[in-house]
Every structure is written in structure tokens, then in C-alpha cells.
Inverse folding.
């Protein structure tokens, strides 16, 4: 029996941080055996918000690919590709845009949220409005059975399901309805206590060397109640303890929680033990990444080969789509 297929992707915005690793990549690595995996670096999606400055995209693609490979994505078990090297994505996006009502796109929660968060940019473009429709094309062109996402992205998958039903109702059963494969999301705070994000300047990157990581973690904010070493704290209000939950053993988590509540340990003691666990978790990543970064031609070859494989699949789907829509014409 063929394995069920999944599709997921990331925008090439630069090197990936620990939130990307724990929130997505770890899960992707685990899914490589039970699923037929397609993972896309979605460079066209970057243009929906960064259309005025596309210069870094090429370099960022390489950064993302190096992080993927360092995290354990295996091109012999997964298809790693670049979205724009499969132009059929754009064709399917165009054809789907003919049948999707504009209000469907306007009601996607992230549409207005990102307009508010990125108020310094002009996002009154069709490309930004059509972002979730392009996502749908990305998914269904491979007839993905499921999409691994966090809860915040679940509405996008549900929109894809609605679009598939509308298309199939008009033209016949071409696409399966993709299922939502929810990823258990660990809260990964940045060094300022907010969600880890490049845009906040609070990220610890997968490629950060041990000394850089120490320099970022040591001044990290903690429970504000611990003004002095002798003040007890509440680990549930401490961003450092959130990182313990993600990286440390149950024994260390118990030690940190008890020591925080009783003021038995200081915050620097707590951070020091955390750093030990983080470095142990990232040991393989730190060992593999420089090998890929030093061989950019090899990384590009992996992406180009994966893009060829992905395009072969996408072309078959587009033949079915054109036939279903009665726009399949003789070609020499």
C-alpha cells in the first residue's frame, strides 16, 4: 500500500530558530517514515509581504535548506523542493482563483491580523489576499492527504477543504480533501519572553554556536517576581522554564521548578542547566550544519533534484485539472 502523502512548507526568511525546530521540523523528521513527504521552500509566499525587497530570497533559501538538512530531513526519504521551480503551482493558483469567492479569502483570520502587525507595509495587494489560495494550490497539486500544522494554521487547511469541495462540485472529483494533521505546539519564548520571532529580534538560531547561545540565554528575562536571589518565583510565569519544558529532562524540570518556588536556586543556576540541555539537544544539528553550509552546490543540487521530482507529480495533476475543466488542448 502506498504511504499517505503530506505537504508542508516554510517561507525563506533566513536562518531558522529554535521555535521553527521545535514547532515544525522535529515533527517533520518524525513523519518521514510513515508518510510520503513533500516539503517546499515557498519563495513566492515571501513575495506576498516582502515584494519590495526580494533580494535576500536566494540566500535565505540556502539558509533554510541547510537548517532542514541539519535537523534531519533526508532527501532520500522526503522531497525537498523550491516552490517557484514548479510553475504548475502558479497555474493551479490562477485556475482556482476563478472559482473562489473573495469573501472566503477575506475571512481568513491571519489576513487582518498580519495587516495590523505589518502596518508599515502596504498589504492591500491581491498577492497578499490570495496567500491562502496559493497555499491551497501548494497542497492539492500533490493530492496531499494531510497537512501538518499548528492550531493557528488550521483555518487555512479548512479553507483548502472548502475550495476542494467547490472545485470537485463544478468539475468532478479531482482532488482529495486534505486533513489537518495537528502538531503539538511547544511554547518557545524568545529572549525577551515574547514568542520567538526574527521580527522581534529575540531569536536563538539553530546555527548559533554554543558561546552565542550562552550569551543570548544568560540575560534572558525571568519571572519578574524574582528581583533578588532570595525571592521565590513562579516557574509558570517564567519564560526560561518554558524552555526547560521544551529541552530539559523531567528530572531537571522538577529541580528547576522546586528551586524557583523556594528560592533554592538562582536564575543563573537555572539558565546554566537549561543551556546544558539545549546544547545536548542541538549537538547533532551543530555537527551537521557546517558540513552542508560548506557545500552550497550540494545543497542546491538536492533542491533542484527534489524540484524535478515534485514537478513530475504536479504536471500529472495539472493534466487532470485541465481535462476536468475542459481546457485540455492538443500540444505538439
Amino acid at each position: 500500500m502506498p504511504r499517505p502523502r503530506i505537504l508542508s512548507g516554510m517561507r525563506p526568511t533566513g536562518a531558522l530558530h529554535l521555535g521553527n525546530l521545535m514547532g515544525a521540523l522535529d515533527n517533520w523528521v518524525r513523519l518521514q517514515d510513515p508518510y510520503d513527504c513533500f516539503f517546499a521552500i515557498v519563495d513566492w509566499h515571501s513575495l506576498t509581504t516582502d515584494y519590495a525587497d526580494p533580494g535576500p530570497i536566494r540566500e535565505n533559501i540556502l539558509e533554510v535548506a541547510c537548517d532542514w538538512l541539519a535537523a534531519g530531513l533526508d532527501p532520500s526519504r522526503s522531497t525537498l523542493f523550491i516552490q517557484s521551480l514548479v510553475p504548475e503551482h502558479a497555474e493551479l493558483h490562477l485556475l482556482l482563483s476563478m472559482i473562489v469567492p473573495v469573501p472566503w479569502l477575506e475571512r481568513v483570520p491571519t489576513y487582518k491580523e498580519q495587516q495590523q502587525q505589518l502596518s508599515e507595509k502596504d498589504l492591500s495587494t491581491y498577492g497578499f489576499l490570495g496567500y491562502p489560495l496559493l497555499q491551497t494550490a501548494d497542497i492539492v497539486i500533490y493530492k496531499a492527504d494531510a497537512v501538518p500544522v499548528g492550531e493557528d494554521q488550521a483555518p487555512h487547511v479548512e479553507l483548502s477543504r472548502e475550495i476542494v469541495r467547490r472545485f470537485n462540485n463544478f468539475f468532478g472529483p479531482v482532488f482529495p480533501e486534505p486533513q489537518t494533521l495537528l502538531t503539538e505546539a511547544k511554547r518557545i519564548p524568545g529572549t525577551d519572553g515574547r514568542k520567538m520571532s526574527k521580527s522581534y529580534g529575540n531569536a536563538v538560531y539553530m546555527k548559533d554556536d554554543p558561546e552565542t547561545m550562552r550569551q543570548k540565554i544568560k540575560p534572558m528575562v525571568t519571572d519578574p517576581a524574582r528581583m533578588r536571589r532570595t525571592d521565590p518565583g513562579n516557574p509558570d510565569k517564567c519564560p526560561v522554564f518554558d524552555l526547560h519544558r521544551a529541552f530539559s529532562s523531567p528530572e531537571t524540570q522538577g529541580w528547576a521548578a522546586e528551586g524557583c518556588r523556594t528560592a533554592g536556586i538562582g536564575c543563573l543556576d537555572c539558565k546554566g542547566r537549561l543551556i546544558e540541555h539545549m546544547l545536548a539537544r542541538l549537538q547533532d544539528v551543530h555537527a551537521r550544519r557546517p558540513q552542508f553550509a560548506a557545500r552550497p552546490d550540494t545543497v542546491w543540487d538536492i533542491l533542484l533534484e527534489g524540484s524535478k521530482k515534485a514537478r513530475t507529480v504536479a504536471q500529472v495533476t495539472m493534466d487532470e485539472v485541465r481535462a476536468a475543466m475542459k481546457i485540455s488542448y492538443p500540444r505538439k
